[in-house]
């Protein structure tokens, strides 16, 4: 991750675009230089898969990069986490004739052909963030290697359940590429350690349903050993339901991401561990990459990426033991969650 993150933040140092624009400034270190101006305002849109605190750092990163580059960047997400909502948002940005789009597709198989058509017919540059859609013809993916992130979670489960045990997982949509990859990585990592995922419950990003799914599990499977939250809001939903049921002493809780509520539950010991992504860089690097593609050209920009066109932003594990240290990292970026 550090290698390609360094490359990404160094685009501004490397590329002159050779389009008659001014050479990039080098004052102030690697984060300070700005890319050559496009001659017109570049308009970039970012489409998330939901409206949730997880995306707040992405917005901060997006806005900082846009301000640095002098381009326009806006974002929107489906308020109820529905595919039809995301499709309407996409159509709206296309009708506005934005130059480039970064999207976290809710359903890779469904959205893939749509994204391919937008690129071919409308000439809009498309990349994916957070969750990939390899069949979309997207120019690049910025975000977590979700299979590896699932493996990281699996290793944490092995630590939490040294004698093995049963796991129930919770997620918004299992049709999302990131959800499937995290689950697969988790299952592969725990194979041979006596740990088994016995059920996966979906909530369609309905937070009330997410809570009910946990409550139903606690009633139907009182002997479950670990509850796994695959999406950002699942962790707080699990923690609160387990706490209310008085079951915390016997159930381990493992989740993804660091919403404000998740961080609070880590402080109080009501969540054992969370695998944290870096959505700040989803936004920051998406704007930088797309701006480069618009101004300098797609092919010239892709020369700076690895052959698979993936920028892996990495993950880290946060527990009650290191949550205060992690909060200092967030403070340094000027964000409160991740």
Mean pLDDT: 91
CATH class placement of the largest domain:
Alpha Beta
Q: What is Rg?
A: 20 Å
Q: What spatial form do the alpha-carbon principal axes imply?
A: elongated
Named at the architecture level, the CATH assignment of the largest domain is 3-Layer(aba) Sandwich
Secondary-structure element string: HHEHEHEHEEHEHEHEHEHEHHEEH
Number of domains: 2
Strand content: 15-25%
CATH superfamily of the largest domain: Response regulator
Structural class: alpha/beta
Could you characterize what this model shows?
With 338 residues, the protein is an alpha/beta fold. It has two domains: 171 residues, Response regulator (Rossmann fold), CATH 3.40.50; 131 residues, Rossmann fold, CATH 3.40.50. Helices cover 45% and strands 17% of the residues. The strands form two sheets. A six-stranded parallel beta sheet has the order 2-1-3-4-5-11, sandwiched between helices. Helix 3 runs parallel beside helix 11 and helix 6 packs across helix 7. The two termini are 17 Å apart.
Topology:
Layout: H1 2-9, H2 11-14, E1 43-47, H3 56-69, E2 72-76, H4 83-95, E3 100-103, H5 108-122, E4 125-129, E5 141-143, H6 146-160, E6 165-171, H7 177-190, E7 195-202, H8 207-220, E8 226-229, H9 234-244, E9 252-256, H10 260-268, E10 273-276, H11 279-296, H12 298-302, E11 310-312, E12 316-319, H13 323-333
Parallel strand pairs: 1-2, 1-3, 3-4, 4-5, 5-11, 6-7, 6-8, 8-9, 9-10
Antiparallel strand pairs: 10-12
Helix pairs in contact: 3-11, 6-7, 8-9
């Amino acid at each position: 991750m550090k290698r390609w993150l360094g490359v990404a933040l160094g685009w501004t140092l490397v590329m002159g675009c050779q389009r008659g624009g001014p050479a990039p400034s080098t004052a102030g270190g690697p984060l300070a230089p700005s890319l050559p101006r496009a001659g017109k305002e570049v308009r970039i849109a970012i489409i998330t898969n939901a409206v949730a605190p997880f995306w707040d750092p992405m917005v901060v990163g997006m806005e900082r990069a846009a301000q640095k580059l002098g381009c326009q960047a806006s974002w929107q997400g489906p308020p109820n986490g529905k595919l039809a909502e995301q499709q309407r948002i996409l159509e709206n940005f296309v009708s506005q004739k934005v130059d480039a789009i970064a999207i976290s597709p809710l359903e890779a198989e469904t959205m893939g052909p749509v994204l391919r058509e937008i690129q071919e017919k409308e000439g809009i540059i498309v990349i994916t963030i957070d969750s990939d859609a390899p069949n979309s013809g997207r120019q690049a993916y910025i975000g977590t290697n979700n299979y590896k992130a699932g493996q990281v979670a699996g290793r944490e489960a092995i630590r939490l359940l040294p004698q093995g045990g049963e796991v129930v997982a919770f997620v918004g949509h299992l049709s999302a590429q990131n959800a499937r990859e995290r689950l697969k990585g988790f299952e592969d990592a725990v194979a041979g350690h006596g740990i088994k995922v016995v059920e996966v419950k979906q909530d369609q990003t309905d937070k009330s349903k997410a809570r009910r799914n946990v409550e139903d599990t606690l009633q139907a499977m009182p002997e479950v050993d670990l509850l796994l939250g695959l999406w950002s809001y699942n962790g707080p939903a699990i923690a609160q339901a387990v706490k209310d049921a008085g079951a915390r002493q016997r159930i381990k809780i493992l989740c993804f991401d660091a919403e404000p509520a998740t961080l609070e539950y880590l402080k109080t010991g009501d969540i054992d561990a969370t695998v944290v992504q870096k959505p700040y860089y989803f936004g920051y690097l998406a704007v930088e990459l797309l701006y480069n593609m618009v101004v300098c050209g797609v092919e010239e920009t892709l020369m700076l990426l690895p052959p698979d066109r993936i920028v892996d932003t990495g993950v880290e594990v946060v527990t009650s033991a290191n949550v205060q240290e992690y909060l200092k990292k967030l403070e340094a970026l000027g964000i409160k969650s991740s």
